[in-house]
TrEMBL record:
Domain Siroheme decarboxylase AsnC-like ligand binding positions: 66-131
EC numbers for this chain: 4.1.1.111
Protein name: siroheme decarboxylase
Swiss-Prot/TrEMBL catalytic activity: siroheme + 2 H(+) = 12,18-didecarboxysiroheme + 2 CO2
Function of the protein: Involved in heme d1 biosynthesis. Catalyzes the decarboxylation of siroheme into didecarboxysiroheme.
Pathway membership: Porphyrin-containing compound metabolism
Length: 152
């Protein structure tokens, strides 16, 4: 996907630090020198191109409850079905396929560790697959972003 100037500036400026206000898209549009309608059209193009999957906050799970990285070894013919089942949980913020014995990975976030264990137990009963549960022991904040160098 080739990026027009507005798209490049939007990505460069708002990979981090979305405005915390009642109308963040209005404020973003003003900052970028465009209309809210143009901004929303830009975001829609990114989504339709598969370049944008989510807009939202990233929480420090230790302050908000509990979190774990989990994986399943799913037979290839069941991968889409099991991924769709996992995605129905609001506690799952994303899941993705990998080329490995454990080929479906997902992150669970909830109010406490027991809640996460209940979901993993439920998934095991529903799918017949045993989840690999990898709770974080040490947090490393990498603040990943890719500066395009187009925003002053």
């Amino acid at each position: 996907m080739e990026l027009d100037e507005l798209t490049a500036r939007l990505i460069d400026r708002y990979q981090h630090g979305m405005p915390l206000c009642a109308e963040p898209y209005v404020e973003m549009a003003q900052d970028l020198g465009c209309s809210e309608r143009e901004l929303m059209a830009c975001l829609q193009r990114l989504e339709l191109a598969g370049a944008l999957s989510r807009i939202g906050p990233v929480f420090d799970h230790c302050r908000a409850g509990a979190s774990t990285l989990a994986a399943l070894a799913v037979p290839a013919e069941r991968l889409e079905q099991v991924a769709a089942r996992i995605s129905r949980y609001p506690e799952v913020n994303h899941n993705y396929a990998r080329e490995h014995h454990y080929n479906l990975w997902f992150v669970l976030t909830g109010p406490n560790r027991r809640h996460l264990e209940q979901i993993l137990d439920e998934l095991e009963k529903d799918t017949g697959l045993i989840p690999l549960d990898l709770p974080m022991l040490t947090a490393y904040r990498i603040d990943l972003g890719f500066a395009l160098g187009v925003h002053p």
